[in-house]
Amino acid sequence: MMRKFACLLLWPFLLKADIAVIFAGAGTCEGCADTVAALLQQQHYQVRLVDEHQLNAKVLQQADLYVQPGGSDDIMDTLSVLSDRQLQEIRDFVAQGGSYLGICAGAYLAGQYADQSAGVRAFGLVELTEIEQEILDDNQAQLVAIEVPPDSKPWQVYYQAGPHFGRHLPATGSATAFYAGSKQIAARISSFGQGRVGLIGPHYEADASWFAADDLPTSSPLQQELLFQMLQKL
Hints:
- This protein is an alpha/beta fold.
- It has one domain (13-233): Class I glutamine amidotransferase (GATase) domain (Rossmann fold, 3-Layer(aba) Sandwich).
- It is built from eight helices and eleven strands.
- The chain has helices at residues 2-15, 32-42, 57-61, 76-79, 84-95, 105-108, 208-213, 222-233; strands spanning 19-23, 46-50, 65-68, 99-103, 113-115, 120-121, 142-148, 153-159, 174-179, 185-192, 195-200.
- The strands form two sheets. The protein has a nine-stranded mixed beta sheet, sandwiched between helices. A two-stranded antiparallel sheet has the order 5-6.
- The radius of gyration is 18 Å and the shape is globular.
- 38% of the residues are buried.
- Residues 1-16 have low confidence and may be disordered.
C-alpha cells in the first residue's frame, strides 16, 4: 500500500519532465549528440535522438527543447539532407514557444544563410545573416579563453572551429559569454516568436574524454556547468 502511494506521489513529477529532441543525423560529429543527451538526462530531461528521416513536426510537437549539436566542418552536410519543410518545422517549433539550443555547428545553422552569395538558406532563427568562425583557418581542437558575465573571469573551454556572434545583440538578446581575446560574443540567448534560441560557439558539453582524446589539459569544472546555466535561461 505504501509503495502504491509513493508511486502516486511521483507520477505528477514524471509527467512534467521536459522532453529534449536531439539531432543525431548527417553532419553531426561522433559522440556529440550522445554527450549532450547524457548531460540533459542529468538535468532530468527525457531525451530522444533523431536523424534526418525521423525529424518532423509530430516529433517536435512533443518536445520542449530541440538541440542541434556540434558537427562537421561543413554545415551543408546537415542542410543537404533536411528538406525545406523540415527547416520550416524547426522554425515553427521555436516560434510557437519551443527552445532551440545550437552548439558549434548547431549555432552556425541558426543564421539566416549558410551561404548568402549562393542563396543557401539556413534555419533562420536569429538576425545574423551569416555566422562566422572565431579563429579563422584553424580547425584543430584547442582551449580558448572566454569571459562569463557578470564577473568576466576568464575560463578555458574546449573549442574547435566554433563561431562568434559579433558584438551586437537584438533587443531581446543577451550575451552569456565573450571570447576573451576578441571580445566578440561566444554564447547568447535571444527570442524567436514565442520561443527562445540559445547559441554556443565553444563545446560546453565536452567531457574529460574529449580533452584526453585531443591531448588537452583537464577540463575546468565550469565547462559543463555553463551548459546547465544556458538551459536554465532557455
